[in-house]
């Protein structure tokens, strides 16, 4: 495949996403869970990819986080998927500067993979179309296609069915709390399944603001109706990590209009109204004093 002339080194910043609500709607025969959620992209926390051309074949990944396997990660998977489709790729070295917490429900690895796929496609004289690139992303992870577009989406299936939404949260303020806790996605869903098998089980949302949402199809946010802003996985995760439930309670006590866990955790999201800038700022400052990574983001 013909390739464009590109710089010897390039730096790409990769943002993250949060789940504004997550409902588990079913389990497929292969064990994957089907979801109904809203994905919302954020500019930070973020990772950096520094990509350099090399004289060697293949891809070399170096990372400042020892827990990431340099030979088997979302970047190597994305490179392999693109190489298989294109049949010809130059050798590259990727320095991954990781700042998005792992095991936090923020999709950092998927964001990195999508950024690499976009860059590889930009180097082609005849780039792949969106559908082909999306299929490459899906081979890396269910939520990787979302990062190819980075717009607010309603998400179904296992995370791969995306429906873009108008950004009804524009002007709101979001406080993101990232405790130093790693939650395994596999563990969280296994706990959820175990709870769902118990007799007379009713999913307890641990929604400290309102009753359990009755209509899984509605994710509208209103000051007086925020029951849809909740996460089914909280019932599975919070008993094992009560400190996360405490952070959610703190967000609400500090003035958030709604709060929930993002994805399978461990990060927590608090949403503040357009008129709540000062309240959001004070909440973020109060939570930072407790030695947690806290981000205040205007939406």
Structure description:
By secondary structure, this protein is an alpha+beta fold. The chain folds into two domains: 9-164, Ribosomal Protein S5, domain 2, CATH 3.30.230.10; 173-298, GHMP kinase, C-terminal domain (Alpha-Beta Plaits), CATH 3.30.70. It contains eight helices and ten strands. Strands 1, 2, 3, 4, 5 and 6 form a six-stranded mixed sheet that branches. A four-stranded antiparallel sheet has the order 8-9-7-10, with helices on one face. α1 packs parallel to α2 (108-122), α1 packs across α3 and α2 packs antiparallel against α3. The termini are far apart.
Rg on CA atoms, Å: 20 Å
The chain-level mean pLDDT equals: 87
In the CATH hierarchy, the architecture of the largest domain is 2-Layer Sandwich
The tally of structural domains comes to: 2
Strand proportion, as a percent range, falls in: 25-35%
* Low-pLDDT sequence parts: 202-227
What is the helical fraction, as a range of percent? 25-40%
- Reading the helices and strands in chain order gives EEEHEHHHEEEHHHEEHE
Apparent shape: globular
Distance between the termini: 40 Å
Biggest sheet features = 6 strands, mixed
Number of strands: 10
For the record, the CATH class of the largest domain is Alpha Beta
The structural class is alpha+beta
What is the overall number of helices? 8
CATH fold-level topology of the largest domain: Ribosomal Protein S5, domain 2
